[in-house]
Amino acid sequence: MMGRQTAAAPGKLLLFGEHAAVYGYPAVGISLDRTLTVEVAPEAEWRFCFGDRAPCEEFDGEYGDFFPHLEAVARDAGRAERCGELRGHVLISSDLPIAAGFGSSAALCGALARLLLPGNAPVDEIWSMAHRLEEFFHGTASGIDTGLSVLGGSRVFRFTRDRELPEARPLSLPEATIVYGALPRERTTRELVAAVGRRLEDNPRGTREILDRLGAIADDVASETVWGASTLGELASRAQELLRDLGVSSDPMDRLISAGLDAGAIGGKLSGAGGGGAYFFVCDGLESGRRVMTALQRNDTGCTATDGSAAPAILRIGP
Ligand code: PMV
């Protein structure tokens, strides 16, 4: 019998292109320096646990259905035997906030795909398997989260009709300090995407214009002509205004963005589907980033650690 098997995968921060990506525009994102780790200890039955404490916290029923899905994906990929060897106690530990918009489910799927596939499997195969696994959590996942988790780095994703997964080109970003975190989510991604769809039906011209402008911003960043934290920050703030006009921001998010800008951030926006959720600010250097972070911590947003919010953290980006 095999011993314990471990794999880790990072989370992601979506930078530009959310919602516009649903209508064919590119999306830009970066993998985080925080990871989710899976440790599998063979046992007769599958079970999920979370936490690095002993005894760890067992996930309740809803995730139990994941295992038949995992076995079906492994079988389709010709990895049924390997999956059988792995069956057991899946212990998840993470310094990546869970369910806060940072791709924790994609990281889980990326780590499991690495355990299921041979060590020399091409990354595209790992991505493809992670994507299929993620369907359990997201129904129709775009492939961006698993792409950033499996491929790493900063990337631009472009969608084509003929391929299931988008093209994922490495992207060079200007040097900047990013402050990111998350507010509690008021609406799900599915609800927010549907709300934008209804808005497009009710007001095709106005909504199309907003989506076109959001897409143009993502295109600008993707073209690598954005060279400097100040341009990146300005584009973030412009995108935030458009996302607000699209109806996917929220009052707490708007207040938080103002607080960050007042504390000296160059620009900031929500990240991902919105309705609360993840956000980021672009700052000019570490000192400025720390000031913004302190201001956000002081700003009472009414979040608790268990409601899907995440305390602000710093990420350095650059070529
Ligand atoms: O909040 P997230 O990570 O689920 O981001 C969703 C991004 C959308 O563009 C709103 C949807 C998508 O699938 O591209």
What does this structure look like?
A hairpin with a 6-residue loop joins strand 3 and strand 4. 41% of the residues lie in helices and 24% in strands. Strands 1, 2, 3, 4, 5, 6 and 7 form a seven-stranded mixed sheet that branches. A four-stranded antiparallel sheet has the order 9-10-8-11. The chain has ten helices and eleven strands. The longest helix has 19 residues, at 204-222. The chain has 319 residues and is an alpha+beta fold. The protein has helices at 66-76, 80-86, 104-116, 123-138, 144-151, 189-202, 204-222, 229-245, 251-262, 286-298, and strands at 5-16, 27-42, 47-50, 57-58, 88-94, 154-158, 167-170, 176-183, 267-271, 277-283, 310-317.
Strand content range: 15-25%
Q: How does the helix and strand content classify structurally?
A: alpha+beta
Low-confidence stretches: 302-306
Q: Categorize the overall geometry.
A: globular
What's the pLDDT, averaged over the residues? 91
Distance between the termini: 45 Å
The arrangement of helices and strands along the chain is EEEEHHEHHHEEEHHHHEEHE
- Bound small molecules, which ones? (3R)-3-hydroxy-3-methyl-5-(phosphonooxy)pentanoic acid
Using only C-alpha atoms, the radius of gyration works out to 20 Å
Please work out how many helical segments DSSP would assign.
Answer: 10
Care to count the β-strands? 11
Largest sheet: 7 strands, mixed
Share of helix, binned: 40-55%
